[in-house]
Design brief:
By secondary structure, this protein is mainly alpha-helical. It is 57% helix and 7% strand. Strand 1, helix 1 and strand 2 form a beta-alpha-beta unit. Helix 11 packs parallel to helix 13. It binds adenosine-5'-diphosphate and tryptophan (TRP). The site of tryptophan has 13 residues, from strand 1, helix 8 and strand 4.
Length: 321
């Protein structure tokens, strides 16, 4: 299994990103023969338009992933733009991409439906993503539900290139991440930075505790028994608590007669303990920025070696080399 996935550095990572994606990338590094993970800063350029924000968010994302357990000995971690071969491959793919295929892609379609104008970068976004995937001969792409359509586009483009020019690209498959789109935010809606309802992984614990204490709950009286599964506070608690604690909390909900304040406090405690080790590792990495730079440079050179090989194969296939 050759695993590859990218994550856009468009904001600080939140619990939804962790449980919906990052944790599973980290687990996969032990199962895959090779794993490539990168910060998709070229994709993020479509939304982050400040130089300082983009470069800082890209670096922070790398530090976060390493602190959370991504092991550069097991997985190749790099910045998308450090591999220029991918942009070149993107052009080769663009020349054979039907406009209609991209018009159906949801990022562009949704923006258009809201009456907004879109840039060509957003329109061509799935083609750059296809180049990301094909450049490393990846066969397994772990993604959330929202990205499955883009993997289909990638398979379409790889298939027609192979058909036109002969076998060139490995056909990738999406590996749907579990629980994606499920972590609720402080308002009970899906946690997302676009909804401004996130709890960030590396937020200052005190600030986070205050945010948790302000989570909106329903206003039914304390005495009333409640179904735990319906409550977003319980859903969040379940992400962190072990089976015994989760069962105990579920029983309290069903019995009634407890206060939400108690659950919020338990949630803040569990979350703090859960991420304590990662927080300590992050502090250590912050103190050694050179180490992070070396990891990324090494990742980029490994990634480039592979991408150059695939790009040459594609260039020779279509007659530009
Ligand atoms: P956001 O919605 O905050 O902009 P992204 O779209 O950048 O987050 O998501 C990056 C990854 O994290 C994706 O793989 C996505 O499926 C996952 N993810 C984001 N929010 C959640 C959530 N609330 N629950 C589960 N997974 C999520
Ligand atoms: N578009 C993906 C997202 O927004 C990020 C991404 C870019 C990606 N290139 C990729 C994911 C290649 C998987 C494979 O989440």
């Amino acid at each position: 299994m050759r695993v590859l996935s990218g994550i856009q550095p468009t904001g600080r990572f939140h619990w939804g990103n962790y449980f919906g994606a990052i944790r599973q990338y980290i687990d996969l590094q032990d199962q895959a023969e090779e794993a490539f993970y990168f910060m998709a800063n070229l994709h993020a350029l479509n939304t982050v338009r400040s130089r300082d924000d983009l470069s800082q968010l890209t670096l922070e994302a790398a530090v976060d992933l390493l602190a959370l357990g991504l092991d550069p000995e097991k997985a190749t971690l790099f910045v998308q733009s450090d591999v220029p071969e991918v942009s070149e491959l993107c052009w080769l793919l663009l020349t054979g991409t039907p406009m209609g295929l991209l018009e159906r892609c949801h990022a562009y379609k949704d923006k258009k439906a809201r009456g907004l104008t879109a840039d060509a970068g957003l329109f061509a976004y799935p083609v750059l993503m296809a180049a990301d995937i094909l450049a490393y001969d990846s066969d397994t792409v772990p993604v959330g539900e929202d990205q499955v359509q883009h993997i289909e586009v990638c398979r379409d483009l790889a298939g027609s290139f192979n058909h036109q020019y002969g076998e060139t690209f490995v056909m990738p498959k999406a590996k749907l991440l579990e629980a994606s789109a499920k972590v609720p935010g402080v308002d009970g809606e899906k946690m997302s930075k676009s909804y401004n309802n996130t709890l960030e992984i590396f937020e200052d614990p005190k600030t986070q505790r205050k945010k948790i204490m302000r989570i909106v709950t329903d206003s039914r009286p304390m005495e009333e028994p409640k179904e735990p599964g319906d409550d977003h506070l319980y859903q969040l608690y379940s992400l962190f608590a072990d089976d015994a604690k989760r069962e105990e909390m579920a029983a309290k909900y069903r019995r009634g007669g407890f206060g939400y304040g108690e659950v919020k406090k338990a949630l803040a405690d569990e979350a703090e303990t859960y991420f304590a080790e990662a927080r300590a590792r992050r502090k250590d990495l912050e103190a050694h920025p050179q180490r992070v730079r070396e990891i990324l440079a090494d990742g980029a050179s490994r990634a480039r070696r592979k991408a150059a090989e695939v790009l040459l194969r594609a260039q020779q296939a279509c007659g530009v080399k």
